[in-house]
Write a structure and sequence with these properties.
The protein is α+β, with helices and mostly antiparallel strands. The chain has 4 helices and 9 strands. A 6-stranded antiparallel beta sheet has the order 1-2-3-9-8-5. The protein has a 3-stranded antiparallel beta sheet with strand order 4-6-7.
């Protein structure tokens, strides 16, 4: 499994690309591996605002439907329509082209609220 070091992660297995300004949000390769074949993704409308930890959509696989949780407070400024129309693409590239939404962060995020790459890897090992 591959966890880019430039991203921050949550214990719900979402990632965020930045802690200030505009950030991309997606799902980790670990979560995608656990879900199996992705068949549907539901994302919010552009302009929708969320608090940290709010559910912002769902991801459906052949195994289950899971909520997606926002890593930080912000307003959606773009959705990845390629992933919505072809959710299986998420399995090929969950980080570069597999982002789900772009958000304008409501405020700078404390890095202590998120996990860096090594902390996330440790968390996964402890959970297994």
């Amino acid at each position: 499994m591959d966890f880019p070091e430039n991203l921050y992660y949550t214990k719900d297995h979402e990632w965020i690309s930045s802690v200030s300004g505009t950030a991309k949000v997606g799902v980790s390769s670990y979560a995608i591996e656990q879900l199996g074949d992705i068949v549907h993704i539901e994302l919010p409308a552009v302009g929708t605002a969320f608090s940290a930890q709010d559910s912002f959509g769902t991801i459906e696989s052949t195994k289950t439907v899971s909520d997606l949780y926002m890593p930080a407070a912000g307003k959606v400024v773009a959705i990845n329509t390629d992933i919505v129309s072809s959710p299986h693409l998420l399995q090929d590239d969950p980080y570069k082209n597999g982002w789900l939404v772009k958000i304008e962060l409501a405020k700078d995020v404390a890095k202590s609220d998120l996990l860096n790459c090594s902390q996330y890897e440790t968390y996964i090992k402890e959970e297994e």
